[in-house]
Amino acid sequence: MLLMIKFLSKIISIEIILGSRNARGYEFGRTYVVRPKGKHQATLVWLHGLGDNGSSSSQLMESLHLPNIKWICPTAPTRPVSSLGGYTCTAWFDVGEISEDSHDDLEGLDASASHIANLLSSERADVKVGIGGFSMGAAISLYSATCYALGRYGTGHTYPINLRAVVGLSGWLPGWKSLRNKIECSYEAARRAASLPIILTHGTADDLVPYRFGEKSAQSLGMAGFRQAVFKPYEGLGHYTVPKELDEVVQWLTTRLGLEGSR
């Protein structure tokens, strides 16, 4: 009986919310919510990589020693992806080859950033909110960070969330070329950029999102005025995560969100 109770408590610690269509017409999949095991001090949306889903993200987040964080793990829309020759899979936006000259899918980026912001919109005022992700999930997290700083989405609509932390693992920054000019044109944008803690990590042996794009993304954020952006390289790491990397993220979030000593 005791084993059955423990098993059931593990199951119900993750809440499943059915998919929904947002105002832009994109059909998002199921969202998985991992409730905090301690006092609820922060809520983070965690975004999966290309072809993955929110279920696997929720299992990873539940394993982290962050009892005061509520995790919201949505699933991206299923759509054709140019880099896969039009093959259909879950993706936060369309992407071709990742390069300095690649075209950004602004409509897809804004649709996903808006959906993520909506997931955070009902959090209590005393709960700190943030966004993180892996690979393509990291890309949309960093794009959301730029939307927060600029105060608007790429289409010009107001960005409504007061982000307190952003995490990007093995990803890249969409729109990095024009970011500095956009931030420098606004005192408020520069102030928000300077106040937002961001951590980026990247493996030097990443063969899917090459290391130089992670490094370039961090440099672009720094040059645009994101003074609290830090970059952590991992020697020999490919396109995946390792415990040491996740432990550093846990420590960083604990410090940046003021979670020390709380249960």
Automatic annotation (TrEMBL):
Residue span(s) of domain Phospholipase/carboxylesterase/thioesterase: 32-255
Q: Tell me which InterPro entries the record gives.
A: AB_hydrolase_fold (IPR029058), PLipase/COase/thioEstase (IPR003140)
According to the lineage, what is the superkingdom? Eukaryota
Write down the Gene3D superfamilies for this protein, in alphabetical order.
Answer: alpha/beta hydrolase
Q: Name one Pfam family in it.
A: Abhydrolase_2
The family database entries (PANTHER family) matched by this protein are listed as: ALPHA/BETA-HYDROLASES SUPERFAMILY PROTEIN (PTHR46234)
Task: From the Swiss-Prot or TrEMBL record, give the protein name.
Answer: Phospholipase/carboxylesterase/thioesterase domain-containing protein
Query: Which organism encodes this protein?
Result: Brassica rapa subsp. trilocularis
